[in-house]
Specification:
Layout: E1 5-14, E2 23-37, E3 42-47, H1 60-72, E4 79-85, H2 95-110, H3 117-128, H4 134-139, E5 142-148, E6 151-157, E7 164-170, H5 176-181, H6 189-208, H7 214-217, H8 224-227, H9 234-243, E8 248-251, E9 258-262, H10 268-283, E10 287-292, E11 300-303
Parallel strand pairs: 3-4
Antiparallel strand pairs: 1-2, 1-11, 2-4, 2-5, 5-6, 7-9, 7-10, 8-9
């Protein structure tokens, strides 16, 4: 009988302002899947998504696992999966990427670890449609991703140890599909150059630990100006975050979660409370916030006694 194990997958935030569909950061908020051998397939969901996510073979975790097994020619076994989710659904914190990565990780373990991480990144990107969340979820830290010849190229960048992330999520969902529908089909050369320069500046500032440039480096013209209109209260939240001492504020992924970057000497809790107040005052929307750091390991497996 196969020994029981647990898969741990971090939340992720994509884009970080100007890095549309290419930058992603793993965060210290986790989904887990406990895997046991069983006489028949059993699925349960706890935490975020309980009562909403399917508890059968249509669950995204199982679908991703089956994709890997089909790829490597392994017959899907009978397993018991207990999914305990801390990543909220539809908030721009990589919940679907976490499910896909969890499924691939558990399937690879069951099949004998036939696939290296690079192949798992390729498979996850195929299933998710873009690498910006799945790459950091699998590899940890700040990942820069690009697709070339149907393969995902990734590079890791350092994240300053004293730069905290505050994520504030309102009590409503925003689908990635809707957030993509508002984006223009084409952009001007001027806006393209603006974003290229901001991505380069952002990565340089993070590598150097130079926080003085972060507010300007996190600016964007490709997606945030269009998506902010889909997030009631977003302008007030960002303004309050900056007033409370945040160095920069951006949309997390497609939203509606907003992020604030908080440097040394600033109280990240006060920034989180200010962001909550922004949602509550402008739109009377309840919200919650997390004080987070980069997860530098990425998805991993823990053996259970």
């Amino acid at each position: 009988m196969m020994p029981a194990f647990k898969v741990l997958v971090p939340a992720t935030t994509a884009n970080l302002g100007p890095g549309f569909d290419c930058l992603g950061l793993s965060l210290t908020l986790y989904n887990s899947v406990v895997v046991h051998s069983a006489s028949r397939k059993e699925f349960s969901v706890q935490g975020e998504g309980a009562g909403v996510l399917n508890e059968d073979e249509s669950n995204l975790v199982w679908q991703a696992a089956c994709h890997l097994w089909r790829t490597v020619g392994y017959s899907a076994p009978a397993l018991s999966l207990t999914m305990d989710n801390a990543i909220p659904l539809g908030r721009g914190l990589g919940s679907s990427a976490a499910a896909i990565v969890a499924g691939l990780m558990l399937a690879n373990r069951v099949a004998g670890n036939l696939c290296p991480r690079s192949e798992l990144v390729d498979m996850a990107t195929e299933l998710e449609g873009h690498p910006d969340n799945v790459a950091p979820a699998l590899l940890g830290g700040l990942a820069v991703s690009a697709i070339a010849d149907n393969q995902v190229l990734t590079a890791s960048f350092p994240w300053p140890h004293d730069l905290q992330v505050v994520a504030c999520a309102p009590d409503y969902e925003l689908s990635t599909q809707r957030a993509r529908q508002v984006l223009p089909v084409a952009v001007s050369r001027r806006d393209a150059v603006f974003n290229v320069s901001r991505v380069a500046l952002l990565l340089a500032a993070l590598q150097a630990g130079d926080f003085t440039m972060l507010r300007q480096a996190a600016d964007d013209r490709l997606h945030q100006p269009y998506r902010l209109a889909l997030i009631p209260g977003a302008d007030a939240v960002r303004e309050r975050a900056l007033a409370a001492g945040a160095l920069a504020s951006v949309i997390s992924g497609a939203g509606p979660t907003l992020l604030a970057l908080v440097g040394p000497g600033q109280d990240a809790s006060l920034v989180g409370e200010a962001m909550q107040a922004g949602f509550a005052q402008e739109e009377e929307v309840d919200s919650r916030y997390w004080l987070l750091e980069p997860d530098l390991q990425g998805a991993r497996i823990v053996d259970l006694a």
